Amino acid sequence: MKALGLSFGRKDKNSDIMVKQVLKQLKANGCEVKFIHTLDLDLQPCSGCTACVGSLMAGGKGDCVLKDDFHIIDEAFMEADIIVVCAPIFCLSPTGQFKILCDRMGPSHDFSFRTNALEVGKARGLSEDKLVDPRTFKKRVAALMTVGGARTKHWTSFGIPTMYQMFANGMQVVDVYNAYNAMGYDHMIGNKKLMERLTKMGDNLFFAASHDIPEDYWCGDEEGVCPVCHQDMLTILHDKMRVECPICGIEGTLKVVDGEIKVDFPEEQIEHSRLRYLGKLDHYIEIRDSDKNPEKVRIPNLNEVIKEFNESCGF
To answer: Bridge-partner residues for 93, per DSSP?
Structure first.
């Protein structure tokens, strides 16, 4: 069993040590571990060219056209059975380097995009070396961690929810930890309670990877109101008592039971969470059929319209 740890913080600082502590316990459980300090890599921002999407729609591999070090992380992901990620919190949410990787792994690694690409590619008779990587479809479990210097938790409020952007390719998040108040220590390595919790995280991940766990399996400290991502973030829809989990994109009905907020999420909504296959498939179909939308606004001579607009701006 192979475990991959990704740190998006400074070398040997909190993010590095937190990831390594989890990997250390996974290694003690018999895993082969790999650690990547992502700031050592050249990761260019996604250009939005959609070449990966076009390739997948045609049954291809969905490779990125940018020539940098992304292939190093890509190969490590394909090899891994367990993923551990930690990023520092900058301005309420994870650092920009983390978001770059999320964008680069978006549609190109989306489980539904690759599932359909495999079907299309086989139907076209493409050779195996032209098809998506078969390792895409193996079981993976993951843990997400953030670390912030602020004493109060609300200054890290978008940390863990944002981390879920990374998991387009269907990995199952089973544990998370938000380590705020980092400035209360010279280094989080001196936070004994945290280091013990990360050791437990390593055991949690090993157990999840070693067993046939259900889709709703969870071993985080807090259950959360959403039954899929197990987070407490909600969007009020202003339609009676309707709310939405902004991470999963599922709707439910808000209620208060004995003074405690609860949400009833219908099973159909749960199954179509963007963290699960059917939710990802909804998005794949939306993208695939976008040009078939009869309500799509068409602009004749679009390039000329853009040219005239630019000229009218005078800059």
So the answer is: 90
Q: Fill in the amino acid letter for 171.
A: M
How does strand 82-90 pair with strand 93-94?
Answer: antiparallel
Quote the CA–CA distance of 134 and 131 in Å, as a whole number: 8
- C-beta of residue 31 within 8 angstroms of C-beta of residue 84: no
pTM of the model: 0.92
Q: How far apart, in whole angstroms, are the C-alpha atoms of residue 244 and residue 250?
A: 5
Distances in whole angstroms, Cα of residue 237 to Cα of each of 9, 147, 204, 248, 279 = 36, 31, 35, 15, 20
Residues in the chain, total: 315
Distance, CA of 293 to CA of 311 (rounded, Å): 31
Write out the chain's pLDDT in tens, 315 residues: 999 999 999 999 999 999 999 999 999 999 999 999 999 999 999 999 999 999 999 999 999 999 999 999 999 999 999 999 999 999 899 999 999 999 999 889 998 999 999 999 999 999 999 999 999 999 999 999 999 988 888 999 999 999 998 766 779 999 999 999 888 889 999 999 999 999 999 999 999 999 999 999 999 999 999 999 999 999 999 877 899 999 999 999 999 989 888 999 999 999 999 999 999 999 999 989 988 888 889 999 999 999 999 999 988
Closest CA to 161 of 102, 80, 212, 217: 102
